Amino acid sequence: MEGFSSPPFFFIFIAVISLHSFLLLVRAKLVVPGSFGDIGGALYGPWMRHLILNSIVLSQIGFVRAYMIFVSENLQAFASSVTNCVQYVPVKYFILIQTLIFLPFSLLRDIVQRHWWQTLTS
Fold first, then answer.
1. How far are the Cα atoms of 9, 16, 25, 72, 112 from residue 13, in angstroms, in the given order?
2. φ and ψ at 74, to 5 degrees?
3. Domain chopping of the chain, boundaries
4. Is the model more confident about 107 or about 99?
């Protein structure tokens, strides 16, 4: 029975720590205006600002990679069903196609100001 009782307590403990951390972050945000990097820079100096910004970049890269793999596997399944499983296209080629499409957009400084892109997505 112990195996069923300890995981919920562990998750509750992690939830309490997350809630406490979030409330501390909100309090710091009320005192220090700016981004998360600015808050870290004001509280601990430039090394913390860089650490926070780098961790945000790494987490975003992880999200993008997971999204690209998910979309590539769906495109592979779609291509297989359209060709009646005659043509097999590896996932890596769908990832490469997405990379070639997304890379130029990642170089844009402010994508919101691109009106043609907004029209295309509407």
1. 6, 5, 18, 37, 40
2. -65, -40
3. 7-44, 54-109
4. 99
